[in-house]
Amino acid sequence: MRVGWPHEMRSVDVSIAGRLRQTPVLRQPVPHIVVSSKKELHGWWPGKRECTAERMLVNPYNGCDFGCIYCYANSMNWGYFKLYRQTGLVTVFKDMDVNVARQLDSLDVAACGYLSPVTDPFQPVNSRYRLSERIVRVFTERGLPIDVVTKGIIPDEVIRLLAQNRHSFAQVSITTVNDGLRRQLSPGSSVSTDDLFYNLTRLSSWPCEGRQKIHSVCRIDPILPFITDDRRELRHLIERAKLCGADHIIASCVDIPIHIKGKMLKMLYSLNPKPRVRYEKLFTDRIDGSLHAHIDYRRELFSYLRDLCVQNELSFALCMEFENVSTEAMVKTASGKLKRVTSRGMNAEFMTGCKNCEGIDVPIYVRDTSGRSGYYTDHDGRKRPRFGPAAACTGACLTCSFPQCGVEDLAMGRTPNSRKDFNLRDYRRWSKQRASKKQSALSL
User: Fold this and answer.
1) What is the pLDDT of residue 8?
2) CA dist 337 to 282, 333, 413, 415, 422, Å?
3) What's the pLDDT at 340?
4) In the chain, which stretches have pLDDT less than 50?
5) What is the value of pTM for the model shown?
6) Which of these, 43, 64, 404, 417, could form a disulfide with 333 (CB 3.0-4.6 Å)?
7) Could you give the C-alpha distances from 119 to 10, 68, 133, 172, 426, in angstroms and in order?
């Protein structure tokens, strides 16, 4: 429960470097605070993973004024996300683009950027600080691709930058074609459903170098049972996305974190109060800390969507969908120990198209010391070689057994329980290993 309302607050106590400091609340365009941060680029979080490709995750904002009722941020109870849950305040990390630039400049091995994994990069507060545009520019100037994910309006500047790298792309979240219902699901958003589809049109028609168009993904993510799962509306959504130029569809079914179950169910009931008992009976599959819709419901839903995408010549994948398996199942970890498996991903059953769940192969990138990829000026004013794609790498790290990029850690397909969460320290270690190998080759 929120302990205060943003429009009433003049300041808030924030823990910075272990000390509580009074931080002013700024009011325009939405109530927010601005803090400095030493946040580092990192990969996917520990635990279950269905994301096939490695990414460098960037969150310039914590909290989001779109206020989607199903947002991950509603279940996060740490750091500035806790502040957002309690007060509704968005946190802005000033100079985040400068930090990202410094970190990328310290590397010789990097992955595609991911903006953003939790909160929307083009939410209202971005109109004041433009951190998202600046971060996209940082990646692009260095020759690195970036993936932007939004349910807002993508600025022309960002689309222009995405067009400059053949592996950069965008994902647009459209949960329903019913504009009134979508506004109930995202009460803080002033963006219309037409605006979201127009994102796809602009991406598909923007002039590009080295490829026909910018790869675009329409995310029906998540689908809410009894609210946005009408088959005719889902068909309309997919057919319209195709007409607007989408290449790929990603879908998921909403799950309910157990520690906010009451709050989530109350919101679902408010949108469709008739099937109250049906919700209780449907959300029966407990996987880790969340309740998922029964596997039979999800399997029928995803089969329908996959077949519909095939009919419309679109590739298809799921996002973080798992099913429970027998508790007797065991796998051998990288250290040789046996570990009990309780769930498995569903993408192997439903994904179509390429090896990657976003419908595009994006390789790991390495610094191109030959100069063929060009040069850029780094944050210290030095001329540096840009990055280029590792030869023959598809970027499908989760299923890879023979790493063409040269990074052994990223061959996650070798053992079922290999490590799958990496951070900036790992990228620096891989960069040193790459430099050492090159030096050894030169000395032969």
Assistant:
1) 65
2) 36, 5, 17, 11, 21
3) 62
4) 1-4, 334
5) 0.94
6) 417
7) 24, 10, 15, 13, 25
Instruction: Using the CB atoms, write b or e for 370-402: b if 16+ within 10 Å.
Output: eeebeebebbeeeeebbbbbbeebbbbbbebee
Measure the CA–CA gap between 171 and 151, rounded to whole angstroms. 9
Q: Pairing relation of β-strands 11-16 and 19-24?
A: antiparallel
DSSP state of 411: -
Contact 124, 151 (CB under 8 A): no
Per the listing, tokens 């998540």 go with 222
Specify the residue for token string 């545009």.
Answer: 133
- Report which DSSP code applies to 409: G
SS3 205: helix
The 3-state DSSP class for residue 386 equals: coil
- Residue 367: the pLDDT is 98
How far is residue 172's CA from residue 324's CA, in Å, rounded to a whole number?
29
Which domains, from first to last, does the chain contain? 32-360 (3.20.20.70)
Residue 331 has a pLDDT of 53
pLDDT, position 443: 63
- Whole-angstrom distance, CA of residue 56 vs CA of residue 235: 33
**Sequence-ordered list of residues with C-beta below 8 angstroms from that of 336, at least 6 positions apart, any chain:** none
pLDDT score at 1: 32
Q: Could you give phi then psi for residue 238, rounded to 5 degrees? A: -65, -40
pLDDT confidence of residue 4: 46
SS3 58: strand
Direct distance between the N- and C-terminal alpha carbons of the chain, in angstroms, rounded to an integer = 65
> What is the C-alpha separation between 290 and 255, in angstroms, rounded?
6
C-alpha–C-alpha distance, residues 59 and 117, integer Å: 7
Measured between alpha carbons, how far is 84 from 73 in angstroms, rounded to an integer?
8
Are 227 and 272 in contact by the 8 Å Cβ rule? The answer is: yes
pLDDT at 341: 61
**Gap between the Cα atoms of 127 and 90, Å rounded:** 13
Give me the amino acid identity at 153. Answer: I
- Gap between the Cα atoms of 191 and 427, Å rounded: 37
Cα-based distances in Å from 185 to 128, 130, 227: 25, 25, 10
State both tokens at 236. 């309309």
Which pLDDT score is estimated for 3? Answer: 40
CA dist 408 → 397, 401, 414, 421 (Å) = 10, 9, 10, 14
